[in-house]
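Course assignment 3, question 2. Fill in each field.
Student: A.L.
Task: Predict the tertiary structure for the chain below.
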Amino acid sequence: MPGLVGGHCIGVDPYYLTNKALQVGYHPEMILAGRRINDNMGSYIADQVAKLMIKKGINLVDSNILIMGLTFKENSTDLRNTGVASMIAEFKSYHCDVDVFDPKADKHEALEEYNIELVDKPAPGKYQAIVFAVAHDEFKRLSIETVKSYAAEKHLLYDAKLLFDEDEVDGRL
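Answer field:
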């Protein structure tokens, strides 16, 4: 399933394989195509959220976005090569204010590696868009009512990890 990938095996190792393949005269088009898709998922998700916000009449510039999750995979503390970082950068390029909540991630490491300050908890009633980027068990246990309590009156919910039913969110992968 497409999504935000990171770590080493999917995020880095294919480049070693493609390099070796090229050395022996083979052009690994499929591996390179997969890497291009994965490398652009953060931007793709941010773009999808932006388009949905515009459709709903939500002002994108200066909006408050909540990203749920930063680690590269669920229930992990590992931030290596997280695809979520590119999504955050894309939202910031739209002049959005981005809060990131991840109960698994180390705050110091997030700041040092990505210049991302994690929030201790989402602020109630603040966010014009909430994006579920990582499927931590803590997020799976949240009710849709709890999630909506973080949202501003006019808001958008985007579920990149299919944690909620399709009719409960405005968009998803």
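Instructor remarks: Strands lie at 64-68, 97-101, 127-132, 151-159, 171-172. The first strand starts at residue 64 and ends at 68.
Grade: pending
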